[in-house]
């Protein structure tokens, strides 16, 4: 028993004493140096409980400290009685039972470095995981709580050969083939065959690696056991496999079509021994199978097929030989390709591709309004009438003895849309045509084309109306309405309709005012044949003129603003107006003009307001000089007038933009000149004489004396320069005015006035004294 302890300081040696706890046997001890911490005590009894005491001692053999524990020794060493191999991967060991042992360990090892220990509870036991046909050395140890015993005396044993890996197959319904790979170190193989349900065994020995059994019963299971033999004559592992032979050929095979919504092919047969299932195979590559029933259905069937049907049985070994073939013809296929061709307008034909296994065909044609017709033929086409604007649906059925083909391809053919018959082309504006028509059958879209030889305008719409705008003015257009469908395209046979657009708008070159009441308008002709109308729109009036040439005259009113535009007219209609040209006529002359002489050298000219006038220039002209004023008013003062002179009177009226109108009026004659050096002299008999220096020319003069109590007047004849006033009151201040008379006898009112004081001398005139001038009041 081995004991381990912890070291003690100062200890020079340790003593271990083993004392049996329940036995009279003597104690056993062992002593170790002070540097040792583990030691063993030998010569103990197996399977015995010992009290183990460790004592630490100094050099004087004095015990420094001690410790005790109780442990059991291992059981006795067992004895192997026999070791042998029955399997290639194991050896079985038989050994004697040891008292006190709670278990055992079987140790296996060999020269190749293999080592294993297998815990067991009893004898015999088997060591597994070994290599086949290999030598092993085996020993057994007993175990209890105290540990394991020493190994037993070893025994040598060899594992047997491994079993051959048999592979089986059934090449035919009466044979089985067995093959295997060579087993290392094998010199002979034994095979034993037995049929399921039989006690008869067939045993064979061979040194080869394959074996074929023939003459067996079809569909029957056979079991084969095999093993190998080593050179020492030891039989190796055995293996058993079972193989069934292929089933026999199914008999009484029958085929027929099954009625119903879908036509299928049913195959019937008689069941055979050993079959797990059946497969019916057609020459077309289709098949069906069944595991329990004695029939199966091939579906779906293909049309126009000549089926050759065979049936094979199958099981785990494989398939039986096929049965005798049974033939069956299926219903025909519909034609692969069907098409409709319009041979001539209104005459169509349904045509189709060649169909095998067919006796005759029926072609059906249905129009989209429900009208239907059909034809029966052995050929490959049928004819029918097809009108424009319709869609025709057609399908072809083929027939033979098996029945009708399934529904085939449905083709449709749409005839070209019909041309509209009531096309109306209207000019809705100068450069826009509105085309309308009644909808026609088959048209999904209408293409309207207008061409004038230099351009084409297109309009596409689904509605039966179209407006073509931005056309060329004064052009003849050929308009065609083409109905179109997505399938057939457009009908290119529809007739054309002509319509001329409105004339082009003329271009006004100039507007020239010929005189105050007449203007001439010039324009560029923009059409081949057209009449042109000129319209001048004023605020209060509207004027016009027309011509087929390039100008016309128009009477206008003075002082007006006009917008002048031109129109062209043809049989197609009226053009758009030209761009307007503004026209402003000269202002009107005032209806009246008055010239009034205010002073000897100044006149006041007044006139009535003139329509369209913003300002005026008034002129008085004569060979002796002229006077002029520029004003925005309707009156004007003109100075520097020469008395006794005749003047020409004229007026120029100007508009706000500078247009001028010259107006002439009746001449004006300035009055005679006022006399100068007017003096008053006392004459006898209370008479005063007025004297003056007269102007050139023969004029009559009048002299007026104005006092506070009385007024006096005297006149002179032509050429005279004096006149007398009698019986005048003295003691008065008189205002004296001498003025010439105009041709109509009126008195000039603007001559200067002088003041004279006339005193009395008794009852008569005294002194006459000049008091100065007095302004004209």
From TrEMBL:
<protein>
    <submittedName>
        <fullName>Fibronectin type III domain-containing protein 7 isoform X2</fullName>
    </submittedName>
</protein>
């Amino acid at each position: 028993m081995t004991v381990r302890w912890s070291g003690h300081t100062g200890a020079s040696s340790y003593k271990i004493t083993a004392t049996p706890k329940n036995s009279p046997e003597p104690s056993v001890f062992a002593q170790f140096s002070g540097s040792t911490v583990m030691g063993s005590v030998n010569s103990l009894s197996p399977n015995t409980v010992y009290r183990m005491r460790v004592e630490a001692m100094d050099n004087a053999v004095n015990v420094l400290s001690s410790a005790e524990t109780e442990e059991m020794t291992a059981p006795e060493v067992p004895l192997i009685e026999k070791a042998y191999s029955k399997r290639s991967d194991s050896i079985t060991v038989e050994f004697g039972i040891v008292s006190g042992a709670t278990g055992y360990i079987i140790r296996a090892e060999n020269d190749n470095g293999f080592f294993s220990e297998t815990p067991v509870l009893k004898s015999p036991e088997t060591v597994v995981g070994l290599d086949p046909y290999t030598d092993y050395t085996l020993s057994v140890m007993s175990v209890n709580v105290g540990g394991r015993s020493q190994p037993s005396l070893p025994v040598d044993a060899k594992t047997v050969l491994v079993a051959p890996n048999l592979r089986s197959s059934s090449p035919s319904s009466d044979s089985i083939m067995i093959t295997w790979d060579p087993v290392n170190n094998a010199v002979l193989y034994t095979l034993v065959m037995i049929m399921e349900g039989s006690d008869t065994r067939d045993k064979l020995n061979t040194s080869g690696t394959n074996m074929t059994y023939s003459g067996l019963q079809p569909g029957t299971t056979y079991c084969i056991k095999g093993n190998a033999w080593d050179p020492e004559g030891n039989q190796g592992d055995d293996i058993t496999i079972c193989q069934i032979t292929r089933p026999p050929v199914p008999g009484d095979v029958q085929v027929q079509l099954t009625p119903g919504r879908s036509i299928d092919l049913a195959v019937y047969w008689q069941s055979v021994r050993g079959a797990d299932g059946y497969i019916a195979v057609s020459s077309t590559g289709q098949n069906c199978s069944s595991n329990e029933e004695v029939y199966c259905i091939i579906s779906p069937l293909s049309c126009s097929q000549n089926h050759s049907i065979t049936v094979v049985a199958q099981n785990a070994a494989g398939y039986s030989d096929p049965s005798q073939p049974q033939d069956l013809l299926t219903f025909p296929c519909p034609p692969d390709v069907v098409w409709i061709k319009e041979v001539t307008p209104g005459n169509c034909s349904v045509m189709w591709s060649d169909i095998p296994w067919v006796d005759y065909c029926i072609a059906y044609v249905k129009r989209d309004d429900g009208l239907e017709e059909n034809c029966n033929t052995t050929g490959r086409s049928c004819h029918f009438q097809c009108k424009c604007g319709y869609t025709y649906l057609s399908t072809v059925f083929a027939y033979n003895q098996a029945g009708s083909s399934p529904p085939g391809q449905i083709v449709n053919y749409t005839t070209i849309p019909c041309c509209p018959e009531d096309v109306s082309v209207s000019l809705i504006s100068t450069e826009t045509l509105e085309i309308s028509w009644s909808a026609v059958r088959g048209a999904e879209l209408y293409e309207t084309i207008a061409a004038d030889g230099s351009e084409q305008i297109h309009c596409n719409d689904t509605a039966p109306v179209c407006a073509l705008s931005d056309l060329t003015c004064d052009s003849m257009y050929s308009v065609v309405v083409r109905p179109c469908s997505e399938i057939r395209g457009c009908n290119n046979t529809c007739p054309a309709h002509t319509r001329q657009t409105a004339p082009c708008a003329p271009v006004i070159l100039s507007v020239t005012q010929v005189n105050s009441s007449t203007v001439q308008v010039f324009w560029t002709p923009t059409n081949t044949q057209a009449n042109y109308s000129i319209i001048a729109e004023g605020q209060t009036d509207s004027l016009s003129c027309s011509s087929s040439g390039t100008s016309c005259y128009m009477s206008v009113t003075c002082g007006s603003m006009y917008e002048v535009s031109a129109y062209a007219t043809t049989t197609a209609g009226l053009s758009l107006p030209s761009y307007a040209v503004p026209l402003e006529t000269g202002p009107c002359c005032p209806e009246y003009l008055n010239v009034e002489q205010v002073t000897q050298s100044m006149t006041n000219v007044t006139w009535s307001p003139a329509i369209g006038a913003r300002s005026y220039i008034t002129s008085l002209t004569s060979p002796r000089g002229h006077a002029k004023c520029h004003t925005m008013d309707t009156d004007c003062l003109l100075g520097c007038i020469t008395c006794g002179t005749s003047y020409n009177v004229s007026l120029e009226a100007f508009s706000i933009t500078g247009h001028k109108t010259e107006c002439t009026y009746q001449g004006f004659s300035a009055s005679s000149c006022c006399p100068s050096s007017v003096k008053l002299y006392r004459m006898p008999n209370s008479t005063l004489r007025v004297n003056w220096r007269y102007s050139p020319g023969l004029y009559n003069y009048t002299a007026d004396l104005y006092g506070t109590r009385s007024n006096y007047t005297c006149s002179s004849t032509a050429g005279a320069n004096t006149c007398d006033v009698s019986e005048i009151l003295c003691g008065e201040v008189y205002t004296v005015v001498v003025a010439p008379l105009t041709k109509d006898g009126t008195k000039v009112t603007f001559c200067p006035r002088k003041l004279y004081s006339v005193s009395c001398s008794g009852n008569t005139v005294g002194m006459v004294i000049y008091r100065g001038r007095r302004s004209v009041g």
